[in-house]
Amino acid sequence: MPTITFANSKGGSGKTTAALLLACELAEGAPVTIIDADPRHPISTWSRLPNKPDRLTVVTNQSEKTILDEIESAATADPFVIVDLEGTASRLSSYAISQSDLVIIPMKEQQQDALAAIDVAQEIYRDMKAVRRTIPFSVLFTQTKVVAKSRTARLIATQFRANESLQIFNTEINERDAFSAIFAVGGGVRSLNPREVNNLEAAVGNARDFAEEVIRTLRQNADAAREVA
Ligand SMILES: Nc1ncnc2c1ncn2[C@@H]1O[C@H](COP(=O)(O)OP(=O)(O)O)[C@@H](O)[C@H]1O
Ligand SMILES: [Mg+2]
Fold first, then answer.
1. Best label site of 43, 60, 105, 178, fewest CB within 10 Å?
2. CATH for the stretch 3-228
3. In ligand 1, which atom is closest to the CA atom of 8?
4. Ligand 1 atom 27, closest CA
5. Ligand 1: which residue has its CA nearest to atom 2?
6. pLDDT at residue 227, as a whole number
7. So where are the chain's domains?
8. 118: CA distance to ligand 1 center in Å?
9. What is the pLDDT of residue 89?
10. Whose CA is nearest to atom 13 of ligand 1?
11. Are residues 82 and 110 in contact, defined by beta-carbon separation less than 8 angstroms?
């Protein structure tokens, strides 16, 4: 039962947003638990708004002492477990990463986010050593402009995509009204009112493409692991 963790020590890199988009999208087809380990608990707050998908369970993380048990019991109950981490590298992060089938590193196409993403990748390599197994991870560009990307954004994206030691999602999470609106009105992008949100159809397509790429990535990683074994 795959556990997918969103990690980046940089606050505002888009972890919570991408985690919730993925959780709602996967919950269209299967039960999902999302563990909210962001100390501001934005997903727990969101879950008290209307329109939470029926198949989505939100667990509020208590502390680093409980995270392993929370992941274990969620993974026994549901086909997908998603962990939204806090914005600092910590023992809690390492515990969650150690249990993950895929770590997603969201980052904006900005220098500070890029440096933080590299730090997280190095952290994941240390966690791999500690647990003596490969932990697949993949970078996700977030809050990208649909039109008129800046020169810096293009440069950072090109450099990252040229780095063969990094897995990077083809799908980017664009900057969209719909993706911040869900935190204000509740539910997922599919339950938003198209009359109230700009370009909702594109947002729904973006979330769906992301979830499909996550599923493909999990499958490819599982196939690769079987070949090695
Ligand atoms: N793709 C996006 N489109 C629009 N707003 C976004 C997007 N991703 C994040 N945001 C906004 O940016 C801020 C930080 O995002 P968040 O997901 O909370 O980052 P993190 O969890 O890494 O701190 C929030 O106000 C959120 O609504
Ligand atoms: Mg967050």
1. 60
2. 3.40.50.300
3. 22
4. 180
5. 175
6. 85
7. 3-228
8. 20
9. 78
10. 12
11. no
